[in-house]
């Protein structure tokens, strides 16, 4: 009883006492672990004393030694990647040799499902997919783990914002779970909830992050939290897709949850792991622009068709004796280096893992390099018997230079880099690209730390308590300098801007867990409370007309300079109560119930509290007495779940009216507050009701089949709508729509299929997704946006439809562009077409019909060969820079154009889809002419690795060693194909230059 009271007191007060020891007699068990396949000695097998958090690991000969309590009921657990876990009752044995079997059956694999809970795949009710770090690193050289998920999981779709390896990627789990932006830049986020070792991470792509300060787009610093976490430190990534799996996270779980678990230490002597990777990247799919001869030809034709005389044309066209390929000057073959070192080990009571990483990443676009330094510590210790304290934390620094190289590739080719005096050629208010690269600065620095401290107390055999406190902190500095020698700086007499921002988030939870069994009844229960607080602030200052450019510090501008300082602060808090109940009968029938109540400061009035819940069940049919065992289907399980989840990822003050203080707003010389955003106390939660039906089967003793159907109905979708100007506001956030995402996912994988001496591990997945707008509560049954956006909403139609003007081609008689009207006729009169928004019709959709991946791993003796294919079909995208490069010929006096313009109409009878070149040709961006089909099949990676034999490693005093080579972004086949000497989807897909990367890697274990 005293020990029980002590543990309770320890839990509630969170006071930790070290140095106490539990005395008990021990004895030693030793043995050897080998593989059934060929009797291979296995190094690195975990040998754990069940329920005591202690153990050992096998050496290079497969031998182990472990101390256990002097109790015949002690059980040893043997685990190894790719092998079945075995449990052995020790009894009175002193030597235990083990033969591990290949893990052809992954049903016993442990999956992380949130709040410290781990479930076997066999007992899983919800839709959870777990990807081990070995699988992620095998198929990708990406800088962050989110980018590595491409093609790995059914129903997960990735899209890069610009193709830059350091910027965030959009991750969509089972479709877009929020409404499209209709031009106000405010909508609920569609990004999943990221959890790192129990701590929620910042939503890097939340469109409302900087809405308070009113910062311009170039001032918003989007942080990819995953780029600050070293992939080498990650043990596994779990993706929670349905209500049963995610409901315990309540608010913000409607978009899915991604749980990242980092590597931990294992008992034994200190082991050192070293790895180094050198990467060489080459530019590919380069956009092709006009050379000087072509540029002069087209410019002359354009000005002549526009009515200019020959003298003016010669002045406007410029030089004919110079050719500068700005794209080639801005590109490079890049070399990067990634180095990692880790130390791990431990004793009976304490285990640890310490790691360091360094990445010097050079891109194929000059001036867009980055440097990352990461460190991480995992420490787990037993304070007293049954009481464990664990710490998991990391510190990272990240520096990046950003140079808008892509925009400069389109500068006129007949302008020389240098003038006659050897100085950089001036380009009016635009910077000479090379001068910009050399003289200007656009740099960001980030300091990031994520830490969690957790206390676990085994109160009794069946009861356990856990408490966690975690911090996610980012400090960012962005510095911009434009020299007075070029571009914007020349207009301003030099320009400086500095922005500093801090995001400081903390979370704390305490929970009780119960696990008990009676005959065939197994019950597990969890109940807890969580507190979460997020705080952000930023300050931006700029000034021009600098006194000197030798000291780049704010506060040294001339008296007549313009300067501005603006700042913002925001904070929000959430209190949550949650619970989970798991029950099974005979490991045959399973039930899971989850509940969570969230109270959030995001919303006002009586909308602050919302309840979320789910229920799910599973039935293993193959365990029934009526089931006849057969080789075709050895395991069969049906599962289903239904529940309600939420999305509170909106602007911090979307429901509240805000005021802004600005030096331009004063009364009698005094600073005054002016209205900034419209209040809406009725704004409430965006909620999703998720249904999931699934089937899991094992075929022919080796193939694992998974089929799932989902139907996610979202209620009260949040959108910011334009309002009449007489209201005094531009827009207001409202709960305005209901919509549905539904689809089917299919997965088929196997482990170690034997093809002679070759072992093959394939994995195929595909996900189909559709969506539909069910109800629109605001004003009308159709909402569309302005001229330059393709988004729109129409009841009964998909929410991912693209609206615009349907291009009909070119009139062969006069070279004018023509468009289809709704009645099927064609017109050349764009002004009439534009005046009626009803003429904007559906011309495509931004959501793919299906996407997926196919990965393969082959092993032969010490060799491993791997390749990954990713694919998508049906998504279409407006390419704005294609319109700029191709159609906006009015800017020929400033920019080069796409080589595609060589196919323009020139004389009556020409059949082409590119109009004649003249000023009276309208610039129509949102036309189907610039809607490109993204359907593609991509060979994402190929790799070959060789593991040195144990005998060789032993002779050079190593535990293990491997060398490898890989190629990333090998080749992509697009549905529309490619055309020699012309640009298409392959060239226009991203704004950032694409590259193919060759990597050479060395790994050593000591």
From TrEMBL:
TonB-dependent receptor plug domain mapped to chain residues: 127-257
Gene3D superfamilies (alphabetical): Carboxypeptidase-like, regulatory domain (2.60.40.1120), TonB-dependent receptor, beta-barrel domain (2.40.170.20), TonB-dependent receptor, plug domain (2.170.130.10)
Record-stated family: Belongs to the TonB-dependent receptor family.
Protein source organism: Saccharicrinis fermentans DSM 9555 = JCM 21142
Keywords, ordered alphabetically: Cell outer membrane, Membrane, Signal, Transmembrane, Transmembrane beta strand, Transport
Protein name: TonB-linked outer membrane protein, SusC/RagA family
Membrane topology: Multi-pass membrane protein
Localization in the cell: Cell outer membrane
Taxonomic superkingdom: Bacteria
Signal peptide as annotated in the record: 1-24
Main localization category: membrane
């Amino acid at each position: 009883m005293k020990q029980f009271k002590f543990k309770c007191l320890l839990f509630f007060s969170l006071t930790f006492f070290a140095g106490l020891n539990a005395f008990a007699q021990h004895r030693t068990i030793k043995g050897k672990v080998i593989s059934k396949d060929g009797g291979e000695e296995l190094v690195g097998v975990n040998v754990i004393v069940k329920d005591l958090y202690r153990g050992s690991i096998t050496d290079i000969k497969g031998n182990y030694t472990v101390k256990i309590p002097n109790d015949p009921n002690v059980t040893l657990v043997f685990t190894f990647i790719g092998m079945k876990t075995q449990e052995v009752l020790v009894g009175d044995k002193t030597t235990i040799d083990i033969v591990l079997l290949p893990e052809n059956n992954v049903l016993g694999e442990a999956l992380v499902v949130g709040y410290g809970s781990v479930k076997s795949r066999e007992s899983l009710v919800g839709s959870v997919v777990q990807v081990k770090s070995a699988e992620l690193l095998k198929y990708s050289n990406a800088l962050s783990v989110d980018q590595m998920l491409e093609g790995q999981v059914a129903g997960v779709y990735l899209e890069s914002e610009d193709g830059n390896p350091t910027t965030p990627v959009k991750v969509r789990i089972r479709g877009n779970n929020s409404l499209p932006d209709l031009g106000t830049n405010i909508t609920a986020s569609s990004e999943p909830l990221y959890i790192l070792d129990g701590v929620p991470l910042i939503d890097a792509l939340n469109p409302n992050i900087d809405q308070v300060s009113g910062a311009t787009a170039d001032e918003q610093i989007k942080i990819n939290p995953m780029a600050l976490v070293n992939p080498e430190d990650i043990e596994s990534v779990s993706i929670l897709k349905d209500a049963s799996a995610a409901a315990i996270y309540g608010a913000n779980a409607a978009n899915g949850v991604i749980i990242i678990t980092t590597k931990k230490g294992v008992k034994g002597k200190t082991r050192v792991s070293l790895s180094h990777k050198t990467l060489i990247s080459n530019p590919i799919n380069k956009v092709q622009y006009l050379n000087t001869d072509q540029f002069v030809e087209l410019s002359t034709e354009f000005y002549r068709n526009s009515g200019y005389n020959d003298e003016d044309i010669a002045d406007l066209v410029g030089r004919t004796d110079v050719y500068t390929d700005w794209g080639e000057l801005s590109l490079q073959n890049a070399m990067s280096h990634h180095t990692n070192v880790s130390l791990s080990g431990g004793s009976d009571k304490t285990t640890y893992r310490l790691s360091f990483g360094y990445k010097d990443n050079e891109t194929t676009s000059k001036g867009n390099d980055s440097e990352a330094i990461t460190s991480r510590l995992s420490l787990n210790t037993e304070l007293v018997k049954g009481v464990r304290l664990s710490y998991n934390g990391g510190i990272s620094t990240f520096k990046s230079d950003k140079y808008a190289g892509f925009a400069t590739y389109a500068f006129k080719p007949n302008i020389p880099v240098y003038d006659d005096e050897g100085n950089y050629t001036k380009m009016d208010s635009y910077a000479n690209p090379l001068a910009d690269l050399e003289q200007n600065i656009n740099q960001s620095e980030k300091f990031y730390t994520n830490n969690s401290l957790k206390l676990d107390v085994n109160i009794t055999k069946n009861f356990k308590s856990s408490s966690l406190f975690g911090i996610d902190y980012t400090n960012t500095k962005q510095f911009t300098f434009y020299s007075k020698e070029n571009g914007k700086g020349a207009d301003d007499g030099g320009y400086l801007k500095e922005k500093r921002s801090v995001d400081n988030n903390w979370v704390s939870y305490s929970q009780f867990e119960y696990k008990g069994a009676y005959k065939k009844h197994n019950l597990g229960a969890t109940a807890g409370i969580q507190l979460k607080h997020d705080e952000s602030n930023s300050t931006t200052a700029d000034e021009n007309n600098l006194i000197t450019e030798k000291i780049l510090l704010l506060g040294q501008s001339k008296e007549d300079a313009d300067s501005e300082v603006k700042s913002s602060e925001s904070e929000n808090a959430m209190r949550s109560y949650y619970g989970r109940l798991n029950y099974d009968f005979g490991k045959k029938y399973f039930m899971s119930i989850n509940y969570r109540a969230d109270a959030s400061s995001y919303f006002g009035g009586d909308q602050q509290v919302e309840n979320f819940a789910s229920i799910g069940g599973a039935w293993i049919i193959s365990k029934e007495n009526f089931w006849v065992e057969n080789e075709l289907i050895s395991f069969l399980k049906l599962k289903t779940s239904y529940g309600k989840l939420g999305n509170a990822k909106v602007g911090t003050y979307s429901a509240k009216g805000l005021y802004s203080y600005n030096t331009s707003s004063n009364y009698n010389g005094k600073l005054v507050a002016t209205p900034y955003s419209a209040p809406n106390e009725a704004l409430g939660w965006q909620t999703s009701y998720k249904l999931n039906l699934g089937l899991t089967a094992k075929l022919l003793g080796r193939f694992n089949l998974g089929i799932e159907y989902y139907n996610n109905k979202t209620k009260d979708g949040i959108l910011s709508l334009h309002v009449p100007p007489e209201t005094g506001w531009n827009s207001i956030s409202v709960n305005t729509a209901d919509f549905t995402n539904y689809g089917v996912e299919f997965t088929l994988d196997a482990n170690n299929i034997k093809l002679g001496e070759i072992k093959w591990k394939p994995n195929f997945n595909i996900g189909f997704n559709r969506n539909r707008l069910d109800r629109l509560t605001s004003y009308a049954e159709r909402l569309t946006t302005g001229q330059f956006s393709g988004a729109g909403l129409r009841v009964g139609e998909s929410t991912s439809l693209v609206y615009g003007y349907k291009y009909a081609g070119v009139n062969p008689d006069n070279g004018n562009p023509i468009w289809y009207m709704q009645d099927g006729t064609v017109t050349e009169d764009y002004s009439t077409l534009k005046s009626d928004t009803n003429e904007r019709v559906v011309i495509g959709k931004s959501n793919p019909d299906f996407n997926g991946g196919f990965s393969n791993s082959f092993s032969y003796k010490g060799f491993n060969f791997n390749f990954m294919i990713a694919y998508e079909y049906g998504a279409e995208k407006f390419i704005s820079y294609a319109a700029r490069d191709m159609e906006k010929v009015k800017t020929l006096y400033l920019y080069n154009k796409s080589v595609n313009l060589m196919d323009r109409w020139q004389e009556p009878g020409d059949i082409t889809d590119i109009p004649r070149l003249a000023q009276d040709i309208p610039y129509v961006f949102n036309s189907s002419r610039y809607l490109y089909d993204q359907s593609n099949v991509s060979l994402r990676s190929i790799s070959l690795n060789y593991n040195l034999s144990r005998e060789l490693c032993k002779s050079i005093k190593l535990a293990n060693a491997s060398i490898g080579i890989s190629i990333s972004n090998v080749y992509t086949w697009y549905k529309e194909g490619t055309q020699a000497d012309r640009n298409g989807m392959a060239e226009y897909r991203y704004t950032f230059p694409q590259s193919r990367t060759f990597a050479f890697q060395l790994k050593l274990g000591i």
